[in-house]
Amino acid sequence: MDSRQQQAAAGAGTGGSVPRGRGPSAPKGHRRQYRSQKIAHAVLALFALVSVGPVVAIIAYLFYKGGSAMSWEFLTAMPSKGMKAGGIFPAIVGTFWLILGTVIFAVPVGTLAAIYLTEYARQGRLTRIIRLAIANMAGVPSIVYGLFGLGLFVLLMGLGTSILSGSLTLGILVLPVVITAAEEALTAVPQSFRQASLALGATRWQTIRKVVLPNSISGIITGTVLAVGRAAGETAAIMFTVAAFFLPALPDSPFSQAMALPYHLYTVSTQVPGMPEEMKWGTALVLLLLVLSFTLSAALVRLRFRRKKRW
Amino acid sequence: MSTESLLDGWKPTAPGDVTPREESKMEGSPVRIEGVRAAAAPGTASVRNKVELKDVSFYYGDFKALDDITLDVPENQVTALIGPSGCGKSTVLRLINRMHEEIGHTRVEGQVLLDGRDIHDRDVDVVELRSRVGEIFQKPNPFPKSIYDNIAYGPRLMGVRKKDELDDIVERSLVQAALWKEVKNKLGNSAMDLSGGQQQRLCIARTLAVQPEVILMDEPCSALDPVATQQIEDTIEVLKEDYTIIIVTHNMQQAARISQFTGFMLVQETGEPGRLVEYGATSKIFTMPDREETENYITGRFG
């Protein structure tokens, strides 16, 4: 063990996680190297903190302003007195149905598309064009999806302003997220698993069903949950396709209109004079917590599967 | 001694797959005759060719990877392919179970016969072919499932559902692959928890479970330590009683230890396709090869 290693070991022993000064024997150049490394660490850490800052600030602010509105009644009662009293229960229910419809539509379509792209299609011009289209879909403003949904589902297909129209519109909106996540998950499955399966006399489809999908399911679920979070918070896409300002009853079929949290927040903030402040913030808080819970559960699913995974 | 009389020793036992046309082709190929002599050498009338490559060339896109390979693989023997890296040994293997098709943009010329039937014929079912020709890969690649489910994977594909039937297959395959004693009490454990050598024997057992006739091995020991390598070699020794084994190896001692026949492959100049330089009985290749390149390689002068 030379003197430098000894020092490093001593440093580790005293709990120093960052390499500290190398003592009198270290050449000057090295000391300068370590100093610039420390500065780099500090700057990078600062920017990392700055980027999470707004999220923390928003959550804290919403709790501060809307926390007082939070009550069992607020979550479970129908609105009353022109939204100014009561709760937001129908908006929560509407958002729930929209999420469900979006998942039912987007997850199978997205996953199957991803399977085709990664497992079957010959990588060439066609797949490049499809991938380009998907990437572009992700960049289309959501109001455009809203208008598209209005034109296609509500009017042309005659589905009316309904949960069905809204779910289909949201489904298209989140499709790129689902496809991209599923593609990533599928390509992460080692090629050697596929080879082993094929060499045992499995067909391609058997290989996908029995080896590829089971080993990529966590990534697909993660993508789905993230997509759900996106759909739950979407306003513009549901404005013309499903959302109602106020409904006296809960929706009773896929063809019903529904209230939804983001649209409710939008209307009470802009269309209802004299709306109590804490109810607006409270609605925002519920919406945010809902979306965060989805994101968090995606992270948990990923964590759980990663711990089990050993390749 | 004429070529004809050499051929006589083994030809009649081949199940009618050698036509006169092919016979004349054999005479034209000096490399092929080496193989023939080797095959005849054991002197038993039971030696017949399980796999035959006839004038096989292979292309990845525009790149010619193999040139005019002609090779007879006798049944229930171990045939080794040796040669420097990148000479196409593994490519030859892939042609025999058509795994090259999974890469795309490849082309095969010539014939690859299994029991006299060209497996590249359009009406040959690749799935059925692969259940007859198993493959062991360079790196052990068990599925991230239990030991039991790894072995049962192939039989289940083929529709075996009954528990006791699967149990039998799992036990038999593991016994054959010399892994049963080590794992019989933990069949439900993940295959990923096994050591590298155990994983490779598990992969062998997994292949045996579909009861193939031919087993291709692509440097199966290159990722293993000497003890694990020894165990695999012992396993191969036993397996050759029932299976035709073709093994690619970088390790010449290994080829000498376990194989009855050896083919030496080489890329003569960079950019040229791989060729089969010499093929014959292992004992002959390693003691008095006909070709200078073979001797140079074997004596360690290059590669």
Mean pLDDT of chain A: 84
Overall 3D form of chain A: globular
Mean pLDDT score of chain B: 84
Could you name the CATH class of chain A?
Answer: Mainly Alpha
Give the helix/strand class of chain B.
alpha/beta
Number of strands of chain A: 2
Using the CA coordinates, give the radius of gyration of chain A: 26 Å
Q: Briefly note the CATH topology name of chain A.
A: MetI-like fold
Helical stretch tally of chain A: 13
Largest interface: A-B, 21 and 26 residues
CATH architecture of chain A: Orthogonal Bundle
Following the backbone from N to C, one meets helices and strands of chain A in this order, namely HHHEEHHHHHHHHHH
One letter per element, helices H and strands E, the order of chain B comes to: HHHEEEHEEHEHHHHEHEHEEHH
Class from secondary-structure proportions of chain A: mainly alpha
Helix content of chain B: 25-40%
Count of runs of 4 or more consecutive helical residues of chain B: 13
Notable traits:
heterodimer; A: 311 residues; mainly alpha; MetI-like fold; two-stranded antiparallel sheet; 72% helix; 1% strand; disordered N terminus; B: 303 residues; alpha/beta; six-stranded mixed β-sheet; four-stranded antiparallel β-sheet; 10 strands; 39% helix; 22% strand
Task: Please describe what this structure looks like.
The complex is a heterodimer of chains A (311) and B (303). Chain A has 311 residues and is mainly alpha-helical. Chain A has a single domain, classed as MetI-like (MetI-like fold), CATH 1.10.3720. Helices cover 72% and strands 1% of the residues of chain A. Chain A has 13 helices and 2 strands. In chain A, strands 1-2 form a two-stranded antiparallel ribbon. In chain A, helix 7 runs antiparallel to helix 10 (217-233). Residues 1-19 of chain A have low confidence and may be disordered. By secondary structure, chain B is of the alpha/beta class. A 6-stranded mixed beta sheet of chain B has the order 6-7-8-3-9-10, with helices on both faces. Residues 1-45 of chain B have low confidence and may be disordered. Chain A binds chain B through residues 122, 190, 192-203, 206, 210-211, 215, 309-311, and chain B through 97, 99, 102, 104, 127-128, 130-131, 134-135, 137, 139, 141-144, 153-154, 157-158, 190, 192, 203, 206-207, 210.
